[in-house]
Amino acid sequence: MARGKVVIATGIPGVGKTTVCKEAEAQARAEGVKLSVLNYGDVMVEIMEKRGLLVHRDKLRKMDMATQKVLQAEAAAKLAKAVKAAEGHVIIDTHMVVRTPFGYLPGLPKHVLEALKPDLLVLIEADPEEIAARRVKDLEAGERLRDERRIEELREELMFSRMVASACSVLTGAPVAIIKNPAGGQREAGRKLLELIKG
Questions:
Q1: 162 φ, ψ (degrees, to nearest 5)
Q2: 6-198, what's its fold?
Q3: Burial of 22 by CB count in 10 Å (0-12 exposed, 13-18 middle, 19+ buried)?
Q4: Average pLDDT, whole number, for the chain?
């Protein structure tokens, strides 16, 4: 089978990125379209576990910068192999930027982009107020260790993601698309993502 598209789907924590990716995958399966989703954070956690270190995925961004960079590169190499072996299209679920105690770390530095060779970059977004509400809900449910942020900080994070996406597009030649994921809109957002992949 011919190589499918490699799509990097990104979004800040709490935007519903993983839910939208899973929705696109489910709809693709229903239509007989070969599509798989690979989660960057899951691969980073697996690498840590193989070293005998149990780290919650939401604590990765709080590790020291040198460790994060090494882990990021190792995960990119592992994902690149998985993409090569995959049948059909692949979505890589990750972050355009990672907010660390030291500042913003690019989720897709040049060496990662060169390893993954994306055909399309997608930003999944929601209103800052909606993201804040989702983060609170995640914290209350005990599902994720989300950082609570003020609305203005969330706006900054969304803006920073767009700026970095633009730089990634320049480096790769891959276009950037933005998909909105409002409350209750994950099915439609998943449909839009799938249509971009098929188009």
A1: -65, -40
A2: Rossmann fold (3.40.50)
A3: middle
A4: 91
